[in-house]
Design a protein that fits this description.
The complex is a heterodimer. By secondary structure, chain A is of the alpha+beta class. In chain A, 46% of the residues lie in helices and 16% in strands. Chain A has two domains: 2-50 and 307-427, no CATH class; 89-263, no CATH class. In chain A, strands 3, 4, 5, 6, 7, 8 and 9 form a seven-stranded mixed sheet that branches. In chain A, strand 7 and strand 8 form a beta hairpin. The chains are: A alpha+beta, B alpha+beta.
Chain lengths: 428, 384
């Protein structure tokens, strides 16, 4: 009780000073927090790229053909350059006509890859049908369940929701999927945005195994799809990304060729130049009646993110200065605080306080300046985040800021305690 | 003379009262000046090339392109890099120079394809006078880097990428119709690196025709130059006269004032943060010198004189910080170069930073110092 009274009187004796130093600590911690939070995303992206180097190991291609893209057919094309064992489906968005969407504009109708007529507007959720779940070969993670193609799901299609889709596990999407009333139920969710950030996937996508779609009768297996015939008189528009659209000039239903995207991974023993040359060979030649196009940009790499975060990179020296000023400021102010406490401590000592009590009061006196200021600064950062919608705080930034402030406080307390114990005469 | 002596004695008392705190205050002030300079570097370095005059210079002789409908000016002629740099040294400041990468065509015994390797192009050191970041940053993991002589004149050497599985001493053969060119691998890095002198010696485009009469090429991609401001007609004519392949992109209308609208508040926030840090230190030093101040007053000094002297002492700390900051400028330049900031701080920036910072600090400490000076022995034993 006596100790609490002493601490209270110690703090109350210099209210103005404590308020001022605390304000400087709060401002420093806020700026430090904001600067770390601003750099964090860039560092996370860079460490992901360094860890995986997908730009060196993967290429993305589209295969367009009038024949259905069965596995055998695609493998035959890729076997021409010895890459048939390195194929995976890329995340391609397919529209899901929602139940509420209505068929109004006939001119927008065109036949889809599977030969069924698409009869709705573009909905804001896209379906991606994979042959191999992405977390099995891409550095990403799924929370919840991964749809199992061998399991029987009663009346719904299990899907994994994209990180940016806004859907949660248990959400249902009711759709009029090309004439069939279908319910997609979210059973899992990607726990990071790697697919969207690096692999050009749409943020509002849901993912499911293509086998589940085949079993539910919502899609035709490539083996069951008809071989189409070219219609040279129709106008084809080839997009920059390799997508092909056929313009419909009348109400007649149009047919577009089968089109699918794939990731081709580089075999470990192959050099990047050799791998690139093989992909270039594929994209330059029509093989077995199929046209292969390279998809650019295939995977976003270092250069893309360096350009995206150029301002963050250029702010680094500024952030470094904030860090140095903050550290020096905290050190300097703690020195002032401790020095100005010496006279008070001398009075306590004269009144019979033990050295142990003086040490405790010194430690509490220093900590009372930094710790509340730290808590206030974190709250301010949270408020900035809430009010301005700006990522002023993150788990990492708050941990680093706390660690920095705590380290400085502990070091300063340590130094001060050593000087109190070693040089008692100063107190008397 | 008397005032100077008083100022000296007061300064001595300030410093002696706590050398540690004086050092910390000066150090904080040094970094406060640097924080303002770094803000200038961050905002005045270009990060949006659309905002600046943008000139693409294509080096390969064969390059041709058509006039663009969206306001591009175009002129295509032959060139070489030496000529280009002699002209560029008289042009407005270059704020970005993107050296085009090279595509090197070669074959491998265990491949049936023509392979092309991307390579960074290494410019001779003298071109750094025109743009300091002209050369790519690369780390040599094995072997050695190019010597100055090798960068200047082509000695048929190359640095290979570690992913290419090449070893030091191996030969890298560039295919060419006029006879293949053998390059010796002298080092291993993340990417291939080839000196510009290779292209000066053999030409910017080397062709190779395969058995199917298909033409492949080794070439150097275009360089892209961004100037600080739009070029005048006269400057464009000079580039044109130097027989350069030009592809000039007209800049967007840019409101340069917007940069300063951001810079000034950020600088003020930094200065306030720093002033808050040093406020208690300066007042503590003044309080520690209160006996000296009271003696000055007893000997007949007016309040205003003592106040001015204490403010001058505070200013001296900041001035010392400015001098240290200017002396350590090469270190700051190294730091900004690490982050490829193209704005080089000059002396005027330091002066602006000093004015900003000293005004904020003096305004902050003025009321505290005034109360200490007016009642130097009030509340003795109590700090602040």
């Amino acid at each position: 009780m006596k100790l609490i009274f002493l601490i209270k009187s110690l703090l109350a004796s210099r209210k103005r000073f404590i308020v001022l130093i605390s304000a400087s600590f709060v401002l420093t911690a806020v700026l430090l927090n904001v600067s770390i939070a601003m750099c964090e995303e860039y560092y996370a992206r860079m460490s992901y790229i360094e860890r995986n180097r997908y730009t060196d190991t993967m290429e993305r291609i589209y295969i367009k053909s009038y024949s259905p893209l069965t596995d055998e057919y695609v493998d035959k094309i890729l076997a021409d350059v010895g890459l048939e064992k390195n194929r995976r489906n890329s995340p391609e968005p397919g529209d899901i006509p929602l139940e509420s969407s209505s068929f109004e504009d006939k001119k927008s109708a065109y036949k889809f890859m599977d030969g069924m007529v698409y009869d709705g507007y573009f909905s804001n959720i896209y379906l991606c049908k994979y042959s191999e779940e992405y977390s099995s070969f891409i550095d990403t993670a799924v929370s919840g369940e991964i749809p199992d193609k061998d399991k029987n799901y009663d009346g719904y299609i299990p899907v994994i929701a994209g990180y940016g889709s806004g859907l949660n596990i248990g959400s249902e999407i009711k759709s009029n999927y090309y004439g069939t009333k279908t319910v997609f139920k979210v059973v899992g969710k990607y726990s990071d945005d790697s697919l969207e950030a690096y692999f050009s996937a749409q943020p509002n996508m849901i993912y499911t195994d293509e086998e589940i779609m085949y079993k539910a009768g919502l899609e035709l297996r490539p083996e069951d799809q008809p071989v189409l015939t070219p219609s040279p008189e129709k106008e084809q528009i080839v997009g920059e990304d390799g997508s092909i659209t056929i313009i419909s000039s009348d109400e007649e239903e149009e047919v577009i060729p089968y089109l699918k995207g794939y990731y081709i991974s580089r075999p470990e023993e192959m050099t990047p130049a050799e791998f690139r040359a093989r992909i270039e060979y594929l994209t330059e030649n029509e093989i077995y009646g199929a046209l292969v196009r390279a998809n650019n940009p295939p995977i976003k790499g270092r250069v893309y993110f360096e350009n995206l975060y150029i301002f963050t990179i250029m702010s680094f020296p500024m952030f470094l200065m904030i860090f140095i000023i903050g550290t020096l400021g905290v050190v300097g102010n703690l020195i002032v605080n401790a020095d100005s406490n010496i006279s008070n401590m001398a009075v306590f000592r004269l009144c019979g306080a033990k050295v142990k009590t003086i040490c405790l009061l010194t430690a509490v006196g220093e900590a009372a300046l930094t710790l509340p200021a730290l808590a206030v600064s974190l709250l301010i950062c949270l408020l900035i985040g809430l009010v301005f919608g700006f990522a002023a705080i993150s788990v990492l930034s708050s941990v680093i800021t706390t660690a920095v402030v705590l380290t400085i406080t502990l070091v300063m307390i340590g130094v001060r305690l050593v000087s109190v114990i070693k040089d008692r005469r100063k107190l008397i | 003379m008397k005032c100077l002596r008083l100022y000296k004695s007061l300064l001595f008392t300030f410093v002696k009262s706590s050398i540690r705190l004086s050092a910390v205050a000066v150090l904080i002030s040094v970094f406060a000046v640097y924080s303002v300079i770094c803000t200038f570097c961050c905002f005045l370095s270009t990060f949006s090339e659309m905002n600046k005059a943008n000139l693409n210079i294509y080096l390969p002789e064969y390059y041709s392109c058509e006039k663009d409908s969206s306001g591009f000016v175009l002129s295509v002629k032959n060139t070489n890099v030496k000529e280009l740099f002699s002209v560029l040294s008289d042009m407005p400041e270059i704020i970005d120079y993107k050296a085009g990468v090279a595509n090197l065509l070669h074959t491998s015994s265990d491949s049936r394809f023509f392979l092309s390797e991307y390579a960074y192009v290494l410019y001779p050191d003298e071109y750094k006078d025109v743009y300091r970041y002209i050369n790519p940053e690369y780390t040599v993991y094995e072997g050695r880097d190019f010597s100055e002589d090798e960068a200047q004149t082509c000695n048929n050497t190359i640095i290979a990428s570690k992913l290419s599985n090449m070893k030091i001493g191996e030969t890298f053969t560039v295919l060419c119709d006029k006879g293949n060119i053998d390059l010796t691998v002298i080092g291993i890095s993340d990417e291939f690196v080839i000196p510009l002198s290779f292209f000066e010696k053999y030409g910017y485009a080397l062709y190779y025709t395969d058995n199917n009469r298909k033409q492949h090429e080794t070439n150097k991609n275009c360089d892209e130059i961004i100037f600080e401001r739009n070029l005048t007609d006269e400057e464009l004519a000079r580039l044109d006269a130097a027989s350069l392949n030009l592809y000039v992109k007209l800049p967007d209308e840019n409101d340069y004032a917007s940069d300063y609208v951001l810079i000034i508040p950020i600088c003020i926030v930094f200065c306030i943060m720093t002033a808050l840090q040093v406020y208690s230190m300066f007042l503590y030093l003044a309080k520690k010198s209160q006996y000296h101040i009271s003696i000055m007053k007893i000997t007949g000094c007016k309040n205003s004189t003592v106040l001015v002297l204490t403010l001058l002492v505070t200013l001296t700390y900041i001035l010392a910080a400015l001098v240290i900051a200017i002396l350590c400028m090469p270190l700051l330049t190294e730091l900004t170069m690490k982050f490829r900031l193209n704005y080089v701080p000059c002396l005027s920036d330091f002066v602006i930073a000093f004015v900003f910072y000293s005004v904020v600090v003096l305004a902050a400490v003025f009321p505290g110092l005034r109360s200490i000076v007016s009642k130097p022995l009030a509340k003795v034993g109590e700090i602040l």
